[in-house]
Structures are given as structure tokens and as C-alpha cells.
Amino acid sequence: MTSYGDTKKARIDALAEAGSLSDDEGVSLWRSAWLRLRKDPVFLIGAAIVTAFVLLAIIAPWIAPHDPAARLLIGEVSRQSNPVPEPRPGFPLGADDRGRDLLSRLIVGSRQTLIVGVLATLGGLIGGLTLGILAGGVGGWVDAAVMRVVDVMLSIPSLLLAFSLAAILEPSQWSVIAAIAIIQVPIFARLLRGSMLSQRHSDHVLAARALGVRPIPIVFRHMLPNAIGPVIVQATLVLAVAIIDAAALSFLGLGNPDDTRPEWGQMLGAAQPYFNSYPHLAFYPAICIVTVALGFTLMGESLREALDPKSRR
Amino acid sequence: MLKFVIRRVLQMGLALFMLSLLLFAWLRALPGGPVSALLGERGSPEAAADLRRQLGLDQPLPVQYVRFVQRALDGDFGISTGVFRGQPAIDIFLTRLPATVELSIFALAIALTLAIPLGYIAARRRGGVLDTGLVISSLVGVAVPVFFLAFVLKYLFAVRWGLLPPSGYQTAGIDATRVTGFAVLDGILTREWDASWDAFRHLLLPAIALSSIPFAVIFRITRASVLDVMDEDYVRTARAKGLRAPVIRVRHIMRNALIPVITIIGLQVGALLAGAVLTEKVFAFPGIGQALALGFETRDYPVLQVLIMMAAIIYIVVNLLVDIAYALIDPRVRTK
Amino acid sequence: MKNRRVAIAATSAALALVLSSCAESERDDSSGEGDGASGSEDAGGAEASDATFVFGAAGAPTTFDPFYASDGETFRVTRQIFQNLVGIEPGGTEFVPELATEWESSEDGLTWTFQLQDGVTFHDGEPFDAEAVCYNFERWADQNEAGQNPSAAYYYGNDFGFGEDSLYESCTATDEMTAEVVLTRATGKFPGVLSQSSYGISSPAALEEYDANGIEVQGEGFTFPEYATDHPTGTGPFVFDSFDGTSNVTLTRNDDFWGEQAGVQEIIFRIISDETARRQELESGTINGYDLPNPVDWAGLEEAGNQVLIRDPFNILYLALNPVADPQLEDPLIRRALYHAINREELVASQLPDGAEVATQFIPPTVAGYNESIEPYAYDPEAAQDLLEEAGASDLTIDLWYPTEVTRPYMPNPQAIYDAVAADWEAVGVTINPVARPWAGGYIDGTQQSQAPAFFLGWTGDLNSADNFLCAFFCGEDNQFGTSALPFQDELQEGLRAGDAEPDEDARTALYEELNAQIMSEEWLPGLPLSHSPPAIVVGPNVEGLIPSPLTAEDFSTITLSE
Fold first, then answer.
1. Model pTM?
2. In whole angstroms, what separates CA C377 from the centre of its chain?
3. How far apart are CA C550 and CA C460, in angstroms?
4. C-chain residues within 8 Å CB-CB of B68?
5. Amino acid A23: pLDDT
6. Contact partners, residue B215, CB within 8 Å, separation at least 6
7. Whole-angstrom distance, CA of residue C409 vs CA of residue B203
8. Which of C279, C297, C350 has its CB closest to that of A77?
9. What is the predicted ipTM?
10. Three-class secondary structure assignment of C361-407
């Protein structure tokens, strides 16, 4: 460890090592983890929330009572005397400021929220994977160069970096996803690099090398699969962060302005002018975000603990 | 040790230089920018071109960067073009720094005083209802968007129950003497207790909102590291020697368990800075975070440039100090 | 470990000692508990002379010299400090005497003679006289390059202009209380322009001492001279006291004011950038009022006992069509079709506050030159479809721009307004490509550089002058409506010029009425006026005497705090 901010990195590296101690007991590690998780209430609650959320996101368009973009009650909306139509039969939560059914927007919003979360995480993962393999797999000056870039990215508080990134891009769904994905890149990169470095001198890699397997297959066939545990843990946690960060971007006006396909963070951000008079517009999406983010976090944390060899003592 | 520090400072310098380059190119890639912010709907293409020329924004980027560095060496970090027009960007940073620092210290203090004891208790009752409950609630703290938590706190304590002021740092028109710029501290130093109390009341809600994430992180680290330490040989030895439980707790468990906690505090500075952008916006709190949020809104290059750079410097320096402290405590780090 | 702890304790104790030794309360004991707005409670009745009025401002003033400003947050403060030669009637838009008691022009409209108010002194004790007036005129004209920039002396550059083409010729003090201003050409906006906040009359001594014209470009911004940051000196009912750099601007009453004394001892403009926070501060009584409350909050604010004062609409929201950005829009049939397709009645009813009106032309009804007889284009989707067909554009596709990260007095919720128009256009078969851009992050740039074919923008009038509206929209070669690509450009420019150059008021009004009719004719119609909407200002239950101004030029000296 040779640079500033070692502590942040140390944490990432510790996670990297933890998951890849598996070496020859890979199967048993996962099995023992599963045995523990099955009985862990924290994991079960998290998994239940996440499953429900994913299911909802998949079937959303079919169960939403109305088109989330249709301005059904616009005729009643008056900016001053009745800005937000009240609940009524057919519109159990009422409508938003443009007469669109709130319940339908929340239901359909689950899908867009999941898409933003998953794509941002995937983007971060792919970027991190590329850098991590370059650094950990090739080593030498490539490693040094890649890690310097990663260091610079880690030197700005990550959310601040996301704000700056979102501000230069033309605001859209993609700018939000890109901004959140990019701040995850250095974390995944470090994670993978650490994991690979710790395996470089492990028996099975040395054996493969001795047998004359070329470097690239070694990386993909022998080193990468062993790094998968910590990556899954990190990805689960990042999903939660991505959903919350998307909301933060919308709150600062840096989110996706196109709300024909609603997203919870965007709904929360758009409810800002109504915080005083119609707080429910903010409350519902906020509850959804908190629940889902909590679900992913609970899952991620219990996975982390289950995969941590230390805690198996 | 000295070598370690020198090497780290050099690396820090390099990273900051690269960052300044990136930041410079970056901010100039922003669409719109100072010219739009300055002119609004009153602009015209000629006026905009004219202004761009006067501000030197029509020059090639490298030229702009060289001019920027030259001026920076003279202590001139640019003049705000957005909401604080005419004020030097560095002054905006300096006048607002105390407010944010005081807010962050309060937030960190709240997080620490709650998280460490609770983390210890949770670890001792590992797997119990209390432990599970505490773990879940700490994770709720992470899952709630900071700005929404801030809004709910404000709505309940300030608007609904009227217990605390809804926004700001000090009551308008309060007769408080400024010494350091830290409002609570100033009140104490000058013995203007009412001013100090007033600022404290203003700080409370934003500090609670801001403490949610550091609390969760510190709680989890404390819990994990107490669990680790409890299994260590020296604790078992101490127990075998028949030392009394409180002695073991303080001298053997907590002292060792807190080492990782100290290091994590450095990292929380980053979370506090980013969280401050959101919290200060909700509470209209005149700190650096608010200036950053307004800077994004008005695309105020000079202000964003200085504030982000300073945020990075603070973050890096704090973490450097933490690492040095860590190296002092734990010699293994040095030798690596 | 133990030793280290002792060392830390010792250091911090020493630090505290050092700090406290140089820290001494500068508190003035007589002022007692400075508790903001609640300080008014002990003040009895309308003679609440020691009361403090706290106003929640949305942003910091950019400068305290109104000459270098063009934004409402600045003018709200400077209007209390400065007075102009020509004033505006309270609550209206008519010009009335202020520092000039009367004025008259020569036959050709070039020479203007101002009789000045006696017995006026500046805040620094200097007398107000004709010399002072001429000093101000000269000071305005004599700007360096930075000062001439539209982001500095915007109003002067716009109204008078600098250098060779300047409208201003000379100013002479013909006697102590008579100033004679000579112009280079006749214009309808003079002397009305002098009522704008930018032309507040400053003390010549203070201007000189604090280098008022010393504005500089530094790096990418402007630095203002000391006059503008610390020493604004006018003749108004309040004197500049202090600005703490982040949160509070304090003004105190001018006890030597020549007119009626202000009703409060002190005004504090407290800067609260967040709209939600402004409302909450008002409700918890820590501020006495704020500007531009969100219309959705009006009802709630009134229920809580506050007074929402609604100004007469003096603005316009329009949808600009720019044929330079999209040549399809050169066809008047298409422009007309797009206008007929918009249900403006519903837009106004659902998205704008009560009191908002559908616009029939590019100036609000209270401005001289408003043409009563213009028939509004009716909402008629069928006619729109027919027109599109006639133009061979039934499958019209258009980029429609709207701004994000902003609300304007004429446009409280840009996205909702976009939504309404987009839905109407889609209903007649137009395909819309929505383009959302942050206000300062590309929207202003794009719309002004003719990149946006169709976009929402508006204008709040500075003074009662048709030219102030129409010229902002249509003057020049590359205006935001891209009229240079339309056949009537020359005629339009000539109409604008002729209207402004007419010295006779009635003749001028007639010219503008005609011009408005022409602009709105089926052949011209360069853009689509949508609405005029009333901005509000809200004050707490115990505030009396605030007169809302359509120009948002409220005078806070008439305010008293009761209870």
C-alpha cells in the first residue's frame, strides 16, 4: 500500500482478500455462506424486499391502473387553488401536479428505478473490471498508471464527483446512469485488482502457469472466478447507492428531465416545490426508495458477513 | 517514517495537479456557463460574444489554463460569475468554511457518541434481537436519502412543532461578535451565550441529518472490530489471568477496537462534504455545500473550480493525517 | 498514550486562551436581544419606529451599485437606498416626480429640462443639486470597457449606449436646481427610462472617493469597486449598513430623509436560497416576508394568516419560433397552425395562478400601445390540422425546447407548461422532440444562438414602454425569433425604430398599436404569445403598508409592523 487515502483502499482491499481466500475451498465457502444466510433474518428481510421489487418492476406495466404519462385529471388542476388532485376512486393516491395518476407512476417507476440502478452498477462493474484486469492481471507500469488514475478519482468525494459529471452531460436518463457508474469504477477496479494480486502467487495460479497456460486464460479462467464473491457483495451495495444517488442528482436539478417514464428519484426531486403544501408527493417515492435501498443494503451486508472468513470462526 | 510521509506528500501533489487539469477542462466542457448565467434572458448573441471575449473564454483551453495557473500563483483564484458575482471565489470558500466545518464537527460528534457505544453493545450481544435491530436501523440510516431525512427533520421539529429554527446559521439581526467565524465558538469566546445558543439551535437539525451516514458506517466498523478483538489471544489471556471485566473492556477491547474506527473517520470527511451539499441546500445553511449547489445551478466556473479543488484537498489531507496517525500506532503499515 | 492525551489537552487549552484573549464582545449593550423579526413585538402600533423588517431574499445582491446590476435581488435592496429623477406611482406603472419635481422637453424632443427637489441631502450629507445630477449622467456615460459590458451596465448600454452612438449628448446645470439634459435623437422612452432602478442618483463625493467607475475584469469575472461593495450612497429612506458576505444585508433608516420617514428602523434582507425554507421561515415568524411565493403555496400561506399580495401582471410568456433554426417555420401557415393548436385557456387555468391572462400580443394590457382590437387566435385543433395539410406539413416534426433548473415570474413551472403545449401539438399530429436544457447550462445559449426552433421564454417589463418589450424580442439582425429569415424583417425593424423615435406620446401609442396588430397578423406571427401571469409577494400578518408594484419595485419605507 503506497498512497494516500490508504484507509478507503484498505477497506476495499480487505473485502477483495476476504472473498478470494477460497482457493481450493471455493465450493464450501459458498455453501457455508448459504447455510448461514438461510437463517439470517437480516438477509431474509433484504432478499424479500429485493424479490418483491424486482417482480414489481417486471410486471409493472400490466398492473398499473393507468398510463403513468397520461394527464388524466389535468382538467381539475389549477396551479393555485387545486395544484394536486386528491385521491378518489380509481386514483387511490390522487394525481400529481399534471393530473397523472400517482399510484401508476409509483408502480411503473419501480421499473425505471431498477433499470437506472442496474445499468449504473453494470457500467461501474464493466469499467472497474477492465481497469482491474489491466492493473492486476498485467501488472508493472500498466498497474502503476491505472492505479494513479484510480487514485485521482478516489481523491474527490464520490457524490461530489457524480454532481460534477452530471453537470457536464446533457441531462437525460443516460447522464444520470453515466455519472453514477463512473464513480463506482475506481471502487470496482481496486477491488478486482486486489483480489487478483492476492491470487497471483496462489497455488492454483502458479500451477496453471507452470503448465504453460497463457496469461489471458489464467486471468479469465483462474483468477476472475475467484474474485466473484466480493464483486457480488459490492454490486449489491452499489445498487442501493445508485438508487439513492439518482435521487440526489434529481434533487439538485441534475437528473433526467424526461418524466414520461417515471423514476422514483426523479419523482422525489420533482416534488420539491410541493414539500410545504403537498408533502405526500415527496413522501411516497421517498418511502419506496428507502425500502428498496434498505433491501439491497441488508442483502449486501449480510452477504459480506457470510463470505467473510473471519466471521466464520 | 519521514520517508513515508515525504513519499505520500509527493503523490498527493501529483494527484492534485492532475485533478486541477481535469477539473479545468471539465468545467469548461459544461454547456452554458458564466455568460448565460450573467446575461439570462437579457442577453443577445453580440453581447454574449463580447462578454466571452472580455472574460477570455474565447481563448484556446491551454491558454486559459496557463492564465489560470499564473493568476492562481498570485493568489487569485477567479471571481464568481454566478450567484456571488464579484466576490473572489477563494473568499467565498474562506467565509463559508467555518460554518461547514462547525456543522461537520457537530455531525461527526453526534455520530461518534452514538455509534461507538451502540457498536460495542451490538457486538457484545451478537445475534440477539438488540444486535439485529441496531444493525437494521443503522442500515436504514444509509438507505434514506440525506436530503429527504433533512426535509423530514425540518418538517417535524421546525415547522410542525416549532422547536428549532427551520434554516440558516444564525437568527437575522442577532447581535453577535465575529471572531473566528465559527458561530457557536465565537459565542463562547466572547461570552455572548445567547448567540452561541442561537447558533447551536440552528446547527442541530442539519447536523443530525448529516450524521446519518457516518453514524451507520462507524457503528458497523465498531461492531465488526469489537467482534474481531474479542476473539484475540490477548483478550483471552487477559480473561484467563482473571482481570476484571471493566478493565478488559477498556484496556484490551476498546483500545484496540478503536484503531480501525479512527481510520474510518478520515473517510467520512468525504461523505460529510458531499452530504453537506444536500443538507445545506435544504436548510439554506450558508456553508460550502450551499455555495456548491448554487454554483452548479448557475454554472459558476471559478467557484466550482475552487470549491471542488478545496474539497479534494481537505479530503486528501485529512486522510493523509489519518494514515500518518495510523502508521504511528501500527508500525506494520510503514514497513509495507 | 496517556502523555499524548495530556499534550492534546494542553494544546487545546492554550489555543482557547489565545483565541479568547483576542475575542471580546463588541456588543452594544443598549440593543439588547437582537432577535430578528420578533424584535418588532415590543414595538407598539404604527409608530413602530425601532422595528426591524426582515425580508427573505432568494439570492445575494450582486452589487450595491444599481448601475452595474440587472437582477431583481439587487434592485430590491438598492431601491430602498437610492432615488431616481423620475419615479413610479406606488402600485402602478405611471411615471411621477421623485427627485425631479417636473420636466419638459423642447419641441424636437432633444433637450430635457428637469426641475429638482429642494432640500434633499445624500446619506453622506452632501447636498443634492443640478451639479450632482449632471455628475451622475457623466459618470454613467464615462465607463471603461468592463463597465460597458452588458453584464455590467446592462441598462445603460441598452437604453443609452456608449461612445459614438450614445443617446446621451450632455448635461448642464443651468441653475442650482435646474438640470438640462441633451439627447442625440428623440426617443419615446426618455425620460421614463430614468425611473429604472439602475439610474438611482448617487452622491458625487462618494462616487469619487470610492472610485465608483473602477469596475475591472479579473479572470473570468468582474470585480466591483469599493463604492459598489461597501459605500452605496443615495438619497433614499434607508442607508446601507452592512453585508456579512453570506447571509444578511442590513439597511438602517435615514433619519434625515427629505420625504416621509420610513416606518421601520431597520431592514434586514436575509438570503435564503431555498424556496421551501423561505416559506417555513415566514411561518415560524423569523422573517416578515419574501418574494415570489410558489402559487401552489398561496392558499396555505393565507390560511396561516399571511398576506399574499398579488401584483398586476406586467410580463409575458411566449413560445418563440425560430426559422433560422428550422426552415420549416418560414411558412406562416405552419406558424399559424401551431398557434391554433394550443389550448391557452386550459394552459392558463391549470398551470398559472389566478389572475393570469391569455396573451393576445407581445405586451401586457397596461402598457401604452396595447391593441385592444386584436382578435385572439382561437383554440381550434381542426383548423390547425387543415392549415398543416395546406402547408404540406401534416407529418411535421419539431424540436421543442424547455428550460430546467429554473422558475421565472412569468413561468412558474416550465416543464408543466411544456407538457401542456406538447400534448396539444401532438393532438394535431405534430411529432415533438423534447429538448430539456438547464437554464444556465445551455438553454439561454441555445435559444439565443438560434439553435432552438421552438422554445419558451418570457420577459418582465422594466418600465411602461412598448419598446422595452418589443425591442427586447425583435430588434436587430439575429434576434431570438430569427426574423432575418422572414420576409417582413425590414418592415418590422422600421416599425420598431419609428415607434421609438416618435416624440409625441399619442402618436407613439398609435404607432405601437398598429405595430402590434401587424406582428400578430396571419402573415407575420413570428412567435406565439401565451400568457401574462401575476407574480406575488407575501408578508406576515403583522406587516402593514406594503404596496405591491407591477414592476416588482416595492418601496419598503411605507411598511410598518403592528402588534
1. 0.85
2. 29
3. 9
4. 219
5. 46
6. B110, B111, B114, B115, B138, B141
7. 33
8. C350
9. 0.83
10. CCCCCCCCCCCCCCCCCCCCHHHHHHHHHHCCCCCCEEEEEEEECCC
